[in-house]
Specification:
heterodimer; A: 160 residues; alpha+beta; Ubiquitin-like (UB roll); five-stranded mixed beta sheet; B: 265 residues; Uridine Diphospho-n-acetylenolpyruvylglucosamine Reductase, domain 3; Enolase-like, domain 1; five-stranded antiparallel beta sheet; 12 helices; binds flavin-adenine dinucleotide; binds FE2/S2 (inorganic) cluster
Chain lengths: 160, 265
């Protein structure tokens, strides 16, 4: 089947089998290998991307289901060579060790911050229910997300 | 995953026709249960009929004082809906507790009840509130007749859930003891005081959601936590697995019922 969608702001199209997962299309056909696959039970969240602005597990969606949609992956977060505040905060606050879970963590957190720009620590931890990290113990991930939230609020205020 | 044909109808009539003419076809809603099943090669459908683009299956509206929710309405929409929070807040709270945010952004009401996982949350609300399941065959199935066994429902193979109507209760709440990894219910109890009496539905504890009639009778007499203390839950037909033994589940039924009662007020 032929599908056409927008990925990181650019129109793309491709030929896929109905059973092709969205994550397989992104990684194998578009070469966007920032989106990871960490499990086959839909539990780890390494594969989180945004589809029409909402975070979803790209391993639990068929590519054909994203036909006509707008998809954002970790590669689409930086703007004009500037890292996204979440990417910067993960770097500054040591929010990663091996980095395998990081793209999913950041895409999931970006969805949280667009819904709730000022989350409490508890809200951040609850939101990360679907993102597993085998290295960090989550502490610095939570710290990074709270710091990014703060800097994004400051940026929004400065832009007013 | 085995190969399959893919259909994406835009009307319910078209979906029903496709399902009727392809006996080996399966419906795809949010995919949060069915895609993992396909990935593990536990299913081999000839075709997958995606309900995702059928607008008439989606949405929440007020009807006869209660709520009617389309089958393809996602858990996240129910959780954040101001209308649900106003009319049946217990339902919004239940939806907010399903899985994780990404599962809630895709998973649907219709998919959850059609699947009837023994540990799923929505069946407890549908049974606890005495809701009615509407289908593509024009049937309105009472919750008491809908959930027939483990992963079994009253749906015919070529029947599609279109919506669920929930009457407004006087009071209601849901409490669950979640599996810490998946958030599925080890035991979940939905308690409601309705126009037709007290209803208490239990999920997670047995092969299929059921009504705890002993607790219902006790609460019918006195709506208080103390009433629940006097009830005995028989563990004989409850589940024992790596997560919990049957007698522990029986104990949790009472604890969760009390927590739900406290939340209902
Ligand atoms: C990591 C994870 C955690 C989860 N945690 C929980 C939890 O805590 N509590 C909980 O309740 N659930 C949980 N779930 C399951 C989730 O709620 C699913 O979304 C739900 O069980 C199925 O809904 P779906 O829309 O995804 O259906 P699908 O997976 O698309 O379909 C499920 C089944 O229902 C059939 N079907 C779908 N729609 C209809 C319809 N309208 N009419 C007739 N048949 C239909 C399909 O053919 C299929 O057999 C979890 C899932 C995951 C992956
Ligand atoms: S790869 Fe683990 S949830 Fe998608
Ligand atoms: S940094 Fe290694 S899994 Fe999270």
């Amino acid at each position: 089947m032929r599908i056409s969608l927008t990925v990181n702001g650019k129109p793309v199209s491709g030929e896929v089998e109905p059973r092709t997962l969205l994550v397989e299309f992104l990684r194998n056909q578009l070469g966007l290998t920032g989106t990871h696959v960490g499990c086959d039970t839909s539990q780890c969240g390494c594969c989180v991307v945004h589809v029409d602005g909402e975070s979803v597990k790209s391993c639990t969606m068929l590519a054909v289901q994203a036909d006509g949609c707008s998809v954002t992956t970790i590669e689409g977060l930086a703007k004009d060579g500037e890292l996204h505040p979440l990417q910067r905060a993960f770097n500054e606050h040591h929010g990663l060790q091996c980095g395998f879970c990081t793209p999913g963590m950041i895409m999931s957190a970006a969805d949280l911050l667009q819904r709730n720009p000022d989350p409490t620590e508890h809200e951040v931890r609850e939101w990360l229910e679907g993102n597993l990290c085998r290295c960090t113990g989550y502490h610095n991930i939570v710290k990074a997300i709270l710091a990014a939230a703060q800097s994004m609020r400051a940026m929004a205020k400065a832009a007013e | 995953m085995y190969a399959f044909e893919y259909f994406r109808p835009t009307t319910l009539a078209e979906a029903a026709q496709l399902l009727a003419s392809n006996p080996e076809a399966k419906l795809l809603a949010g995919g949060q249960t069915y895609i993992p099943t396909l990935k593990q090669r536990l299913a081999k459908p000839s075709a997958v009929i995606d309900l995702g683009r059928i607008a008439e299956l989606r949405g929440i509206h007020e009807e006869a004082g209660g709520l009617t929710i389309g089958a393809m309405t996602r858990h996240a929409e129910v959780a954040s809906s101001p209308l649900v929070k106003r009319v049946i807040p217990a339902l919004a709270a239940l939806a907010e507790g399903i899985g994780d945010p990404q599962v809630r952004n895709r998973g649907t009401l219709g998919g959850s009840i059609a699947n009837n996982d023994p540990a799923a949350d929505y069946p407890a609300a549908v049974l606890g509130l005495g809701a009615t399941v509407r289908t593509s065959k024009g049937r309105a199935i009472a919750a008491d007749d809908f959930f027939t066994g483990m992963f079994e429902t009253a749906l015919e193979p070529d029947e599609i859930v279109t919506a669920v109507h929930f009457p407004k209760p006087e009071k209601a709440a849901y409490a669950k003891f979640p599996n810490p990894a998946s958030r599925y219910a080890i035991v979940g109890v939905f308690v409601a005081k309705t126009a037709s009496g007290v209803r208490v539905a239990v999920t997670g504890a047995a092969p299929c959601v059921f009504r705890a009639t002993a607790i219902e009778q006790a609460l019918e007499q006195v709506w208080s936590e103390a009433s629940i203390d006097g009830v005995t839950i028989d563990p004989t037909n409850l589940n024992s697995d790596i997560h919990a033994q049957a007698d522990y589940r029986a104990h949790l039924v009472k604890v969760m019922a009390k927590r739900a009662l406290r939340a209902a007020g």
